[in-house]
Specification:
Helix content is 32%, strand content 19%. With 249 residues, it is an alpha/beta fold. It has one domain: Nucleotidyltransferase, domain 5, CATH 3.30.420.10. A six-stranded mixed beta sheet has the order 4-3-2-1-5-6. α7 crosses α8. InterPro entries: Gfd2/YDR514C-like, Gfd2/YDR514C-like_C, RNaseH-like_sf, RNaseH_sf. Pfam families: DEDDh_C.
Amino acid sequence: MQWPRSFFPDGSWRVLQRHLGLASRSGKTRAADSTLPAPFSMKDDVVFVSIDIEAWEMNHSQITELGIAVLDTRDIHGIAPGPGGSNWTDTIQSRHFIDSNLTHLVNSVYVEGRPDEFNHGDSEYVPKSAIVRALRSALHHGFDYDGSMQRNVVMVVHDKASERRLVQHLDKKAFCNVRVLFTADTQVYATRDDRRFGLEAIAKAFSVEHECPHNAGNDAVVTLQALVKMVCLRTFESKAFFQRSARLR
């Protein structure tokens, strides 16, 4: 399975800003007012697709949950980002899948599993084959209902190495016939050094509400919210970004 390439700061901040219309083509000019819509064209007409996978702690090949959260840049045309990108994160759509054949496997030793506590709608109890189809569909066109139209995707994860292993257990062909431009790992964007922090710590540092963690749907949403907030802070309030990043110790 060929995992999509990753970009890392500092150069990739400009790439993300361009995808969101927050920087000019050269990257030398950036948006300056979060109360106004993005002033530049949104590069590549992308869909941001955040995925989170939960596995049974005693056997990581047993994939129990999949969470998918999507921010479609078509949905934010003409919408001002707002403080910390809050207007944009309000457009995020999400789904939560639970393997209907593995509902008896709930984590409790190393983390507290919360499969029944999805905060953004109803969980979908389906067999593994349907979960695989949902993942492939999201990576092909996000939640765009015209499934015949393939979209450019920026995949968003927290802890790429871990998610890569779990995706391999779920579907070795997940990245066939898709246009995933690159992977954005919130662990990498949160700090300027090589330290890595958990999603809960990053959510707290950047004031992203994170209720009921270790539910794949909730974690997928928070991961995407955190990335959008970090990009917007870096663009409009760089001092605030670095202050929040410094809270991660």
